[in-house]
Design a protein that fits this description.
The complex is a heterodimer of chains A (about 675) and B (about 160). Chain A is α/β, with parallel strands linked by helices and about 675 residues long. Chain A is about 25% helix and about 20% strand. The longest helix of chain A has 21 residues, at about 350-370. Classes of the chains: A alpha/beta (about 675), B mainly alpha (about 160).
């Protein structure tokens, strides 16, 4: 309500963000203000319209436990204080089928012809605070949610015990409206589970249940309350105290998760059998009502927000912050900040704290008037540019604007420095500052200057693989001394000529390594890496060079063990590479660089001492593509469509699990 | 009183984890969801799948795989498989323990009788004349004796090892 009154704040309610364009400091946002069909300036929320409306729908605010009319106000304290019409439920406005509400409205504020309004905003910073959703436990058959009336979720509990709820705060069972005397809470429903819901802990459910037990004890001292838990996570300020108070009030905490919920007594009562793991005894409970303490999950429209603002998500589905410890409210995209549960599950105090931080960071940005960015950006040389537009295609941030026939325009403020455009440009028109072709090739030369046969040349991305190597070192894990890392900001920086140049200088093995798909710091740039490595394998194959000398692995910053084992595997392969092979490789790559007749002649002369082995694929059913693990040689079939978004591949063999997966596209007609 | 100090036997645990089915045992966080619906836990004193997982995690499985071990009370109903939030598959860990017992030659004699019968006749249940008489009365075709040569081929390495 304070926000609604503040002179510097404009609230756009009942609206959707439809489009975001631009870059930090200069965003253009298009917002659709949906039609409420009631003029908020005139409506006094008197409620006369509601009384005569013939249509009803489940009331979302009351968790579907009661109904509302087609013309309704979500709750009495809504800002702005106006009713609105849900056109889906209303009998219709074109033509007006009912119109009873309009007849009784004193203020004449109902307008069935009200259009949606599009609002254009120019903003400097964007804070995303779209919250989180709640897990629906219907899929957990053994709990019978949806089947047994007296099995409810924690959200429904809140409405039932709330004075503004469907029962005006009289806490009764949904089934027979009787007051329950024995209430059980089951924790971790849809959380901490590989099977149902999410694997993470939802943060708030333990303390929410503790609070609920205290509410019950306060209002209804004659109830017996039981909490069935795996762990009680009472980590915050005053939390342990609250937990102890709940126990002191006589709430029974039983460490054990019940099996099935079954009906008993034929009147809606429920029974469960549970092992009290602290005593090792099986116990039976007959309860009047069971509350499922449901976990939380990212909002359903999260993919839309991510697309609008070019944001990534972490493996749990929530938004990825720029740094998990040091930049918890910044998005990797400059100018965008996070507040609240959109970034990860948290309670009110932490959400408010984060909101303050996000506001402060946005303020710092806006106050400065100009933004300082790291100089690791892209530069397009328009003299050699051919206007092909491929660079614009691969930029994860849309920082390159290009229309057919025009030169591409790079918006430096939006450039994050991944290097994907630099790797994509076939005409060498793009320079990546601080990670130029010249600089990276010089590193390759330097590494392979002496004893190239002993080197494991690795391109490692700054955020994950290089850090993973660092971690392996700090953890004192042993791995071969022959590994040599070349750091790039993203694995998408690695272009074909780096790898071929390395082979031409005598490298026995080359490894391209980056972040896992869910974690790419540059949203999804590592998909480009896969595309390029697939092409490189095909090229090596054509030149009769064993493609398995090029490997690709996704190693995260925490995977020191994986880094060490990848290096060990790489070294084994290196020891298998012969000098003859390497000599031939150098010749073949030199010949490949020639043109016309000279090339033809040179290629005809080549004879590979160790040509690549043909792929023996398993029988392919229904035209599936053949995948080949370049690490262990295992082949398998699967779905691959070049135009589709790539998924992270790994070898299905347990002892291998390598990410070096080559796909042999199904040939047309087969 | 037994020595109160618990020593974890990692080798035993690794040995168990290598058997197919028991590879997920390290994910168990002892929530007890497997016990709530376990029919054997309800009726047999001392049978508790969560405890069996705990013993497997600390490598204390010697008592479990004896001929009188409690694992043979498992009814293979797969309720624990359905309830486990961590995909530990307690029933399959127990089957792996049963396999270990068999390797150790400490399976109960009743089990050995059944496996012997399968090898010799191809059936786990004894073929008696009354079976076919009843089937005739019910109008269903009789159970025939089967030639176990395929089974013999598959089990040849085991059979030869036994003869030695």
């Amino acid at each position: 309500m304070d926000a609604g009154r503040h002179p510097n704040i404009t609230l756009l309610t009942y609206s959707e963000v439809e489009d975001v364009s631009g870059y930090v400091g200069n965003f253009k946002v298009t917002v659709r203000k949906k039609a409420t069909y009631v003029d908020p300036e005139l409506c006094t929320a008197c409620g006369e319209c509601e009384k005569v409306c013939p249509q009803i729908a489940p009331d979302e605010y009351q968790q579907g436990l009661s109904s509302r009319k087609a013309i309704y106000i979500e709750y009495p304290q809504a800002v702005p204080s106006t009713y609105l019409i849900d056109m889906e439920t209303c009998l219709g406005n074109n033509p007006i089928a009912c119109g009873k509400c309009q007849e009784v409205c004193d203020k004449d504020c109902i307008d069935f012809d009200m259009p949606d309004k599009l609002v254009e905003l120019e903003v400097g910073a964007i804070i995303v605070a779209t919250g989180m959703g709640v897990y629906d436990p219907t899929e957990i058959a053994e709990y019978g949610y949806g089947k047994y009336e007296n099995v409810i979720t924690s959200m429904e509990f809140e409405r039932l015990i709330c004075a503004g709820g469907p029962t005006e705060g009289h806490f009764v069972r949904p089934g027979d409206k009787q007051r329950p005397k024995k209430i059980g809470f089951i924790q971790c429903v849809g959380s901490r589970s590989k099977k149902y819901g999410s694997e993470y802990c939802s943060n708030i459910c333990c303390m929410n249940t503790v609070k609920d037990t205290l509410l019950l004890r306060d209002h209804y001292p004659d109830t017996e309350n039981y909490v069935f838990y795996m762990d009680i996570r009472a980590f915050g300020k005053g939390f342990e105290d609250m937990y102890m108070r709940s126990k002191a009030e006589g709430v029974k905490y039983i460490r054990g998760i019940p099996g099935e919920i079954l009906p008993v007594n034929g009147n809606g009562d429920l029974k469960i059998e549970v092992e009290n793991t602290l005593t090792g005894q099986l116990e039976n409970y007959e309860l009047d009502m069971i509350v499922l303490s449901v976990g939380v999950k990212p909002q359903d429209d999260s993919p839309t927000i991510r697309k609008l603002l070019t944001l990534s998500k972490t493996a749990d589905g929530f938004m990825m912050e720029a740094h998990p410890k040091l930049k918890p409210v910044d998005a990797p995209t400059r100018g965008v900040f996070f507040a609240g549960c959109v970034e990860s599950p948290k309670d009110i105090k932490d959400s408010v704290t984060q909101a303050g931080a996000a506001a402060a960071h946005a303020q710092i940005l806006l106050n400065a008037g100009k933004v300082k960015i790291e100089a690791i950006t892209s530069k397009i040389d328009l003299d050699t540019c051919t206007k092909c537009g491929q660079c614009a295609d691969v930029c994860p941030y849309g920082a390159i604007k290009w229309t057919k026939g025009e030169f591409p325009e790079l918006i430096e403020a939006a450039c994050a420095g991944c290097g994907s455009c630099g790797a994509e440009c076939k005409f060498d028109s793009i320079t990546m500052r601080h990670f130029s072709d010249h600089q990276l090739l010089a590193q390759v030369d330097s590494i392979l200057e002496e004893d190239p046969m002993k080197k494991l040349l690795t391109f490692a991305c700054n955020w994950c693989s290089y850090a993973g190597g660092d971690f392996a070192g700090i953890s004192r894990l042993q791995y071969p001394v022959h590994s040599r890392l070349i750091r790039t900001m993203c694995s998408a920086r690695v272009q074909e000529d780096f790898v071929l140049h390395a082979f031409e200088k005598g490298a026995p093995m080359v490894l391209v390594s980056g972040c896992h798909f869910a974690d790419c710091h540059y949203i999804n740039a590592n998909r480009q890496t896969v595309r390029r490595v697939l092409k490189m394998w095909d090229k090596l194959d054509k030149l009769k060079i064993r493609p398995e000398r090029l490997q690709m692995e996704w190693i995260s910053a925490a995977e020191g063990q994986k880094f060490a084992s990848v290096m060990r595997k790489l070294d084994e392969k290196r020891m298998d590479v012969t000098q003859d092979e390497v000599d031939y490789t150098i010749e073949a790559l030199k010949a490949d660089k020639l043109k016309g007749a000279a090339r033809k002649a040179a290629m005809a002369e080549l004879k590979s001492p160790r040509p690549p082995e043909p792929v023996t694929s398993p029988p392919s059913t229904n035209g599936e593509s053949v995948f080949q693990c370049m690490s262990c040689g295992h082949t398998f079939t699967g779905h691959y469509e070049p135009k589709e978004e790539l998924v992270e591949w790994s070898c299905p063999l347990g002892e291998c699990k390598s990410n070096s997966i080559r796909v042999h596209r199904k040939k047309a007609g087969k | 009183m037994k020595d109160p100090k618990i020593e974890v036997n990692f080798e035993k645990r690794k040995e168990l984890e290598e058997i197919l089915g028991a590879d997920q045992v390290s994910y168990c966080y002892q929530c007890g969801a497997c016990v709530g619906d376990c029919p054997s836990a309800r009726f047999y004193e001392g049978f508790n799948p969560r405890e069996i997982m705990l013993k497997s995690l600390i490598g204390d499985i010697d008592d479990l795989i004896q001929t009188d071990g409690i694992i043979w009370k498992c009814s293979n109903c797969y309720n624990c498989y359905e309830r486990c939030p961590q995909d530990v598959r307690p029933v399959e860990v127990i089957i792996a323990l049963k396999n270990l017992a068999s390797q150790n030659e400490t399976s109960p004699k009743e089990i050995l009788e059944v496996t012997k019968r399968i090898r010799e006749t191809g059936y786990s249940v004894p073929l008696v004349s009354s079976t076919n008489r009843m089937r005739e009365e019910l109008g269903i075709p009789p159970i025939k004796k089967i030639d176990t040569f395929e089974l013999d081929e598959i089990l040849k390495p085991d059979n030869e090892a036994e003869k030695k």
